[in-house]
Design brief:
5-stranded parallel sheet, Sulfur reduction protein DsrE, Hypothetical Protein Ychn, Chain: A, alpha/beta, DsrEFH-like, about 120 residues
């Protein structure tokens, strides 16, 4: 049975270690052949925008743009609908490959058997 990992990251520059951990786990899982769905919510929503990940710095952590590139290469990234709306972010604003979707889609991803969800 194929396994899927759904990660919801709520932290951004306000909690850089939690933020970095979420992106790192997602990228490593993708590189390991795991199906990954990373959800950007709260302050991590800003990383759906071009150039924002390049502004993120955390000593001894992999660069966020590289992690995002790796996740998109073999997994999916979704920006929360409400989080996007609160920040004035629209579909035309986000990086190629990032979709905007809401709670119904999140629930549908985490409900099948064998799915593990992590929240950072």
């Amino acid at each position: 049975m194929a396994k899927k990992l759904v990660i919801k990251v709520t932290a951004g520059v306000d909690a850089p270690e939690r933020c970095s951990q979420a992106f790192t786990v997602a990228a490593v899982a993708v590189a390991s052949g795991v199906e990954v769905s990373l959800w950007l919510t709260g302050e991590s929503a800003w990383f759906a925008l071009p150039g924002k990940a390049a502004e993120f710095e955390l000593p001894h952590a992999a660069p966020l743009p590289e992690l995002i590139e790796g996740i998109l290469a073999g997994g999916g990234i979704t920006l929360c609908t409400q989080c996007a709306a609160r920040r004035g972010i629209t579909e035309k604003d986000v990086l190629d490959g990032i979709r905007i979707a809401g709670a119904q889609v999140f629930v549908s991803e985490i409900m099948p058997d064998g799915v593990q969800a992590l929240v950072y």
